[in-house]
Every structure is written in structure tokens, then in C-alpha cells.
Amino acid sequence: MYSTFADISINFKEYIVFSGEKTKANLEKYMRTCKNFEENIEKVKRSFKNFLGPFATLFAGNVPRNCSTQQKKIFQEVDEFCDRFPKISTRNRVFLSLFSRQVDKLRPEDIKMAGKLLSEGDTNLQEKVCRFSCFDTLAKLYKKYEPNIKNGYLAINIKNGTAVVNPDGNLPDNEKRMKLFFEYWMPSWNVLFNTKPTPEDFEKFFQSDCYIYMGHGHGSQLLSGSKISEMNVNAVVFLFGCDSVRLTSMGHHAEMIASHIYYHNALCPAVVGSLVIGLDLSMDVLSTQIISSWIASKKTKHWSTMNMKAWKDGTIQQNPNSTAATPSHERRLACAVAKARAYESEKNYNKVGLVYRGLPVYNVSRSKM
């Protein structure tokens, strides 16, 4: 299973990058290759789900607010059931509660496995694990932002932001689509299109609440990592480019490096980016999903109600089949990223590399914590 995981990243470029002339035969071959790659990822997902079994429910996170009452009822029913059987341990009571709240996501074989686990020996529940690239960096970030950290989240009021779109001038379709998005959803933001920012521009960008980069890579052709490390980055950073936060080997006797490390050296609270290369259209779709979900707009009609086909073709149109009501926003950035990764209209190979590095951020412009 683990070797299959490794094959995804190793073969990603071979599968996704289109080479040769755009003939009908080459395009058909390319689509077959993408289809095969999609099937491989589905196989990996199934094998990983089989490996996790009922414990997959433990990675589901908190339930939405509108389901909290239902969850309390489930926990109450589990407690009433366990009270009838004094031999049920506290450990099994906790597991049964967590399994029950996500029982609709369990297969029959998962439920059988859960029953077997609950009837067997103890499992160590005391070991709590938190993973991050560098404890020293995390400590520095926590020390800087500690006054604004509440209930485990860094509270940031996202009101103003900046963006750099297609600075190299060779992604015209990406520029057209994102210009429509920014003009509709965040017209007051300072956005540079088809223009290379100066170092002075970056100093201003990094002092805003949010900075978004959309172009090739992570923008090192505009500002080197060493220069970023010397600056003070207060903004939450989105790097929507190929391999934008992928770790790169610097040799046998040096640690691997990536753009988010430079940003964290500059005390940037959080960085969202990609581990792999991506198609510009898919990156545009995912980026607008995250941004419109997490950052508020004065528009009464949410971006998700727009006609995506019309937007991809270069116009803004309301989807006639969508509701006029504004969907709820995700105040927690990690939830917004997870929501984008679950976007069913996008293929797995477009979503698989999307990652979040840094402190858990809560956007209080939508509501207080």
C-alpha cells in the first residue's frame, strides 16, 4: 500500500503533463492516461480505507454546527446503552460514541470490525500526536501570535488583501478567469495582473491580512526564498502554483527545503499550496473554492452559485439552477481547504496535492470566536 502511495507522486508528472502536438490522437491518448491515473488513485483510496476500517471515522473532525444537536442525541443514546452494561470500559464508551456519530460512513465489514475491537483488549488512548515540520518554527510562530490565539485557533480579521496573478504573462486564460473572480468577489483588493512586483511591492503585500500568488511555482522568480526569510510576513499566504510547497532535496548532507519554510522563517502564520504540478484551470477552480469559502464578500449571491462553465469561458453568469441564498462560510481555514479537497467536480489528481502548513487560522471577520 505504501509503495502505491509513493508511485502517485513519482508518476504524477508523467501522467498529467501533455506533450506533443494537440492532435486528436494525442488528446485521446492523454485523456486515457488521465483516466488510468484517476483509477489508480481510487484504488489507493480504497486500500487506505480498508486499512483504517472503522477508525476512519476518527479523522472526520467536528460535525457541522447544524448537526451538533443530533450528535448530542447520539452520545446520549450511547451513554444510556453503556449504562446498562457496567463492564463496558470508558475507553470503549468513547470509541462507540465516535463510531456511532459517523455510522452512515461505515461499511458492514467496518461495523463488524468495530464490534470485534470493542470486545477485545485495551488500546492506548493517552498518546496524542501533533505533526509539523519543525518544532522550533512552531514555537516561534506561537510566541509571536500568542495574544491572538484562542481556543486553539489564531484569530485574524481578514479585511484587506493583495494578490499577484500571472506575473510572467504566459497564463492568459488563468488571468482572465481570476480577474473576473477578484472583480466580482473582492473588488477592493489590490491585485496585480500580468505585472512583476518590485521588492517594495512585496513588503506592502506581506503586511496585508492575506496574500495570494497565482502563477508558476511559488514565485521564486520574483522574490528569492532568502529575501523572504529576511522580511516580516504578517499575511496568511496562498501559493496557487505547481509544486509551490513541495519539499526539494538540496543534497545528501542537507535538509530538504520548501517555500513554506522561508515564509515561516519570516513568521508567516499559515501557508496553503500544492505538493505537485497542476492544470491551471483546476488550480483556478480549487483556489476560488477556498477563497470564496473562507473570505467574506459583500455580494449577496455566493460565488458557488455562479455558472462555472460560463466562468471558464470568460464570463460571469448566475447559475439558473442554484438557490439565491448565500451558503455559510468556513471560518476555519483548515475546513475551507478540506472542503475544496472534497469538491466532487474535480478529479483526484487535481486535489491530491493541496496542503496547509502553519497555525490553525480562524477568520473572525465572519463572526467572533
From TrEMBL:
InterPro entries: Peptidase_C50 (IPR005314), SEPARIN_core_dom (IPR030397). This is separase. It comes from Megaselia scalaris (Humpbacked fly). Residues 20-47 form a coiled coil. Pfam families: Separin_C. GO terms for cellular component: cytoplasm; mitotic spindle; nucleus. One of its GO terms (biological process) is proteolysis. It catalyses: All bonds known to be hydrolyzed by this endopeptidase have arginine in P1 and an acidic residue in P4. P6 is often occupied by an acidic residue or by a hydroxy-amino-acid residue, the phosphorylation of which enhances cleavage. Transmembrane segments: none annotated.
